[in-house]
TrEMBL record:
Keywords: Isomerase. This is Maleylpyruvate isomerase family mycothiol-dependent enzyme. InterPro entries: DinB/YfiT-like (IPR034660), Maleyloyr_isom (IPR017517), MDMPI_metal-binding (IPR024344). It comes from Streptomyces tibetensis. Pfam families: MDMPI_N. GO terms for molecular function: isomerase activity. Residues 23-102 form the Mycothiol-dependent maleylpyruvate isomerase metal-binding domain.
């Protein structure tokens, strides 16, 4: 799918929910029938968390969104730890069931939030990539949802005034424009594939990723979660 660089400035309210449902349809079948030891695997991108912990965090966050429960301190590290602890007695299947529901039900709420929750949808998609990688499954930070993820990433970085970068991606015909300099700084340049770009912008390891070029900007400047 080709996405011109300039169309990302116009918000598509259905895009975050679409990203979640695309990933739901790919991830949930991978999780069904997995042995318990698979859910206990460590997740490199989330030190101290297992696959089950990441899934419980995601399912809890999406359920909160779907139910409109945004109490004080929600989504803080402490809140995330409580959500995981609250599900300690659940079976792995129950966690996956909640995640499946949340990935389907959160979209309309995110769509109606005017963009305030779009970053959460992108973050949950990235966590699905974390899980894929921990399980040794292909397609981490890529797959059918990548075009929507890249579009969201580009728009979010511009809205936040992030460091400007022009990305020439193997996955798109047109360059992707990320961040916004206001003319104060020339854009950096990335050449490589989309999943590697996602890794850089979300602080995920790039060791073992396909070769890429990054000029005019340091990798540590790109992390939107840093």
């Amino acid at each position: 799918m080709t996405t011109p660089a300039d169309v990302h400035d116009v918000r598509d309210p259905e895009q975050p929910g679409r990203l979640l449902t695309i990933e739901r349809d790919a991830l949930i079948p991978l999780l069904r029938g997995r042995a318990g030891e698979d859910f206990a695997r460590p997740v490199a991108a989330c030190p101290g968390w297992t696959v089950r912990d990441v899934l419980a965090h995601c399912s809890a966050a999406l359920t909160r969104v779907a139910e409109g429960r945004f109490e004080e301190g929600v989504f803080s590290p402490e809140s995330n730890d409580r959500d995981i602890a609250d599900r300690a007695d659940w079976s792995d299947a129950q966690v996956v069931d909640e995640l499946e529901r949340g990935m389907g039900e959160a979209g309309p709420v995110i769509a109606g939030a005017g963009g305030k929750l779009d970053g959460l949808a992108l973050g949950e998609w990235v966590h699905a990539g974390d899980v894929r990688e921990a399980l040794g499954e292909p397609g981490a930070y890529g797959g059918a949802g990548l075009p929507d993820a890249l579009a969201l990433l580009a728009r979010i970085t511009r809205e936040r005034g992030h460091v400007p970068v022009h990305a020439d991606l193997d996955d798109l015909d047109e360059p992707l424009r990320l961040g916004e300099s206001g003319g104060e700084r020339p854009p950096g340049r990335f050449i490589g594939d989309g999943p590697t770009l996602v890794r850089l912008y979300t602080g995920r390891p790039v060791a073992g990723a396909p070769a890429f070029e990054l000029a005019g900007v340091e990798a540590k400047e790109l992390n939107i979660f840093g």
